[in-house]
Design brief:
The complex is a heterotrimer of chains A (about 190), B (about 600) and C (about 110). Helices cover about 75% and strands about 0% of the residues of chain A. Chain A is mainly α and about 190 residues long. Chain A has one domain (about 50-185): Four Helix Bundle (Hemerythrin (Met), subunit A) (Up-down Bundle). The longest helix of chain A has about 30 residues, at about 120-150. With about 600 residues, chain B is mostly helical. Chain B has 17 helices and two strands. Chain C folds into two domains: about 25-80; about 85-110. Chain C is about 75% helix and about 0% strand. Chain C has five helices and no strands. Chain C is flat, with a radius of gyration of 19 Å. Classes of the chains: A mainly alpha (about 190), B mainly alpha (about 600), C mainly alpha (about 110).
Chain lengths: ~190, ~600, ~110
């Protein structure tokens, strides 16, 4: 590791700056979603389709993946090879379950007549949650790559910053979902 | 290129030698070479956009002119604006960042050298993709801010707008990546003793600009993604027929567009904050105030976007708030003017060409700033908006401010980059022709605008009183063109046979002047220790650090591969799904190749 | 912890200092946070279904999800224990982002 002026590793600072940038990306999407709420001219409308119990389960899955992520990092930092492998894989699997849930939700909506270009709700809903889903997917690929490294014994404590940076990304994606879950699903009735 | 190779000092450490040849430039990760690439590309696009401007001026030289048809005219002013702002001024600024920031902070390179090369290729590919639209059925013609719903498939049926979306998505991503890199570089790679309040002003402004880029480009990216989906998949984001609101585009665009103004002008402010102290032989007056006002401009820049939208009718409350914030932002800008003037006051001023351009900026930007304050007031703006008055305003800011600053920087740092001076006599000709040319071009536009001449119309009838203003503007544009040609001649001639310059020909105070001209590949033989704000003036460089191992990153072609994949993916959106998938595959493969490539040999 | 420190010393001061800076929460704390997150999520969903709370639904939801957001950022992302510069890198942009959401919602005539 190189000496840095602030003591923070370069990769970690890069990720935090990137997260700052991502805040603006998701802010634009959320602002658009809210500005266009209730402006669809034809149905189906959010309250017709959104399945709160189902999405609560996938939300919980993503939340728990943040826990496994932080445990994976802690295992890598301790040099606990087995823990690193288990928790990295578990995090990725939870991510896959979340994205799978999203795929089921999307195809269900499409089956109910809410295609991408149905109305303003479909436009904003699919792009906002789709952007988030793409982020989760990228995170899953990243985590699986790290998992392969641990399987080959190439991710010791001296490289923990790699996992830390991936973890920051993963938690941020989770945090965005905390907001989206509230804004899109729980506020849909008001 | 040959000069860079020739000027490696004889330390014999083996890390200083530059390989030659085109391949070495394609695979380079050296911040200085990437800086030169940015600079040269930016200069080429400056000429392209200049030719577009000349065509526009020739068309407007006389009433009822038929040199250009309306559709071509629309494409030309659209591409002129886009190219100048995003592919000329920003890359030339990026050239300065790349070349100078590591030198000014006593670092060997940026924090992520391969990422830096990647940013360059993304910018270049984005710019080429957008400009290639001329060959494939016509360029976008809806103006650089591309208001919805002029941009819908109904009103922009060709592929021009698709090129706009895809080209700017690539270039924008490149800018974000570069900015992230520079934030980390400036915060993390400073030489020992170089605290933030000792960092040279140019580097400070680079930091502010980098933050503006990472925060301003995402809303724009979202805007163009919405537009892409509206055009390709029939969504309703900007489509009133489906309940969408075209005004949303204006919000997203100007949340980006206004900070973008500071993205292009703050580097120029940084440059002249270096030039003026050097040529006045005085430290910058009120350094902390200049830093803080730069930060404040950047911060407030996010709160003023709707002043571009007064004519939308957002309501008295919204208009008042945005008008107030806009007037507020004039204060930190004005403060800087006084800092520069106070720096010159009582100094031993040498009017070399770099200084002339810097002083020119102060005068010209003040004019542009004052007309800006004029239309910060909604009632006045409603008279001025969409007329040539606005065109006059932002050309005073962009040419009179930014370009003069960039020229100043070119004369100032050319000796550092090449080891030779730009010719002073030709430089002064360049300055005076530019100064006369731009004022002749842009000053009459104030009057044309106040007399009611709308912008973006391809011609005007005789007898409305616009003829004299327009002819004067066209003559001025011709003079500016001559000035640019003089500059190019100077550049080429001085590159070959300019007067040799030493390490610190102007007596500058900052660290880049402590190493040879041009600097070796590793910049500094020993990492400097900084003890004051103007280290070369105040004996502020301590004894160098102990003998150290120098590791320079290896050249890499992966940045080019990944950027090439991104270009393929973007082009695939217009060609077909297989090309998209191919591009994605190349990108993913490239990222893995990149991740597992050993950085140091 | 020992291996972490050893690695830090091997690779120079920065990592050691960095590792030192983060006495971050133990695994037990992480699990406790996860429990709190789960409970808060359950509360959110409950609030959604209670008709009587409809008039104050939005403020309650904002409070609950804001708390979840803060917990993840502070503990899982270690921002509570990490360098000041990182807090600035995140909170500055977050402020601008939230301000822009609020401004756009206001401009579009909604009051949350």
């Amino acid at each position: 590791m190189e000496r840095t002026s602030t003591g923070v590793p370069n990769e970690k600072m890069l990720m935090w700056a990137f997260i700052g940038s991502e805040c603006m990306l998701f802010a634009s999407l959320i602002a658009t979603y809210l500005a266009y709420r209730g402006r669809s001219l034809v149905g189906p409308y959010p309250e017709d389709l959104l399945n709160i119990p189902f999405i609560t389960v996938t939300t919980f899955v993503l939340l728990m993946s943040s826990l496994t992520m932080v445990l994976a990092l802690s295992a890598v930092q301790r040099g606990d090879a087995r823990g690193s492998r288990v928790f990295l894989l578990l995090t990725a699997v939870l991510g896959i379950i979340f994205v799978g849930g999203q795929a089921i939700e999307f195809s269900h909506f499409a089956g109910e007549g809410l295609g991408l270009s149905r109305n303003l709700f479909s436009s904003t809903f699919f792009l906002t949650t789709g952007f988030h889903g793409a982020h989760v997917t990228a995170g899953v690929i990243w985590l699986l790559s790290l998992w392969v490294l641990t399987m080959r014994g190439r991710l010791g404590p001296e490289k923990s910053v790699k996992v830390e940076v991936a973890g920051l990304y993963w938690h941020f994606v989770d945090v965005v979902w905390i907001v989206l879950f509230t804004v899109i699903y729980l506020m849909s009735g008001s | 290129m040959a000069k860079i190779e020739a000027a490696v000092p004889g330390e014999g450490r083996g890390v200083s030698t530059y390989a030659g040849g085109v391949w070495s430039w394609i695979t380079t990760v050296d911040h200085k070479r990437i800086g030169i690439l940015y600079f040269v590309s930016g200069l080429v696009f400056f000429l392209v956009a200049g030719v577009e401007a000349m065509l526009i001026r020739l068309q407007l030289a006389a009433p009822g002119n038929t040199l250009l048809d309306p559709a071509t005219y629309n494409q030309l002013f659209t591409m002129h604006g886009l190219t100048m702002v995003l592919f000329a001024v920003m890359p030339i600024g990026a050239g300065f960042f790349n070349y100078l920031v590591p030198l000014q902070i006593g670092a060997r390179d940026v924090a992520f050298p391969r990422l830096n090369a990647f940013s360059y290729w993304l910018f270049l590919f984005g710019a080429l993709l957008l400009n290639s639209s001329f060959l494939f059925g016509g360029a976008p013609g809806a103006g650089w801010f591309a208001y919805a719903n002029l941009t819908s498939s109904q009103y922009s049926p060709g592929h021009g707008m698709d090129f706009y979306i895809l080209g700017l998505a690539l270039a924008g991503a490149g800018s974000i990546v570069a900015a992230l890199n520079f934030i980390v570089t400036i915060l993390n790679l400073r030489a020992p003793g170089l605290s933030m309040m000792r960092v040279p002003l140019f580097t400070w402004m680079t930091l502010v600009v980098s933050f503006l880029i990472i925060l301003a480009f995402p809303p724009f990216t979202i805007g163009i993604v919405f537009l892409l989906f509206d055009r390709m998949f029939g969504t309703f984001f900007f489509e009133p027929l489906g309940g969408g609101d075209p005004i949303l585009w204006q919000h997203l665009f100007w949340i980006f567009g206004h900070p973008e103004v500071y993205i292009v002008v703050l580097p120029a402010f940084g440059i002249i904050s270096e030039v003026i102290p050097t040529f006045s032989r005085k430290p910058l007056f009120g350094y902390p105030v200049v830093v803080y006002s730069g930060v404040l401009i950047g911060f407030l820049g996010f709160g003023v976007w709707a002043h571009h939208m007064f004519s939308v009718g957002l309501g008295p409350l919204a208009n008042s708030v945005f008008a107030g914030l806009t007037m507020l932002i004039a204060i930190p800008t004005g403060v800087k003017m006084f800092n520069w003037i106070a720096t010159m006051w009582g100094g031993a001023i040498r009017f070399r060409t770099a200084m002339l351009f810097a002083v020119g900026l102060i005068a010209m930007f003040t004019i542009g700033g004052l007309s800006g304050v004029m239309h910060s007031s909604p009632p006045a703006d409603l008279q001025q908006t969409d007329t040539y008055f606005v065109v006059a305003h932002f050309h005073y800011v962009l040419f009179g401010g930014t370009m003069l600053g960039l020229f100043s920087g070119m004369y100032y740092w050319f000796p550092k980059v090449t080891g030779r001076f730009l010719d002073e006599r030709l430089g002064k000709v360049h300055f005076w022709l530019t100064f006369i040319g731009i004022n002749l071009t842009f000053f009459p536009m104030h009057f044309a605008g106040l007399h009611g001449m709308p912008r973006r119309t391809f011609t005007y009838p005789a007898g409305l009183g616009f003829e004299g203003y327009n002819l004067t503007s066209t003559v001025g544009a011709g003079i500016t063109l001559v000035a640019v040609l003089v500059f190019l001649y100077n550049l080429i001639r001085s590159l070959r046979s300019g007067e040799p310059a030493g390490a610190n020909p102007w007596g500058g105070a900052t660290l880049e002047w402590s190493t040879s001209s041009p600097p070796p590949a590793h910049n500094f033989d020993r990492t400097p220790q900084v003890r004051s704000r103007d280290p070369l003036w105040n004996d502020g460089v301590g004894p160098p650090a102990a003998e150290e191992e120098i590791h320079m990153p290896n050249p890499s072609y992966w940045p080019l591969v990944v950027a090439g994949g991104a270009l393929t993916l973007a082009a695939g959106a217009l060609i077909g799904l297989p090309v998209v998938l191919l591009g994605a595959a190349v990108m993913v493969g490239g990222i893995y190749g990149w991740a597992f490539e050993p950085i140091h040999g | 912890m020992t291996s972490e420190k050893a690695a830090g010393i091997e690779s120079g001061g920065a990592l050691a200092a960095h590792a030192h800076e983060e006495p971050h929460a133990s695994n037990r704390t992480y699990v406790a946070i996860a429990l709190v997150l789960g409970v808060l999520t359950a509360l959110e969903v409950m609030v959604f279904y209670v008709e009587a709370l409809a008039p104050v639904l939005v403020p309650i939801l904002l409070l609950l999800s804001g708390t979840k957001f803060a917990l993840v950022v502070a503990f899982y992302m270690h921002l509570k224990f990490d360098a000041n510069v990182l807090r600035g890198l995140f909170l500055g942009p977050l402020f601008i982002a939230v301000a822009i959401i609020v401004a756009l919602i206001a401009l579009y005539g909604y009051v949350l």
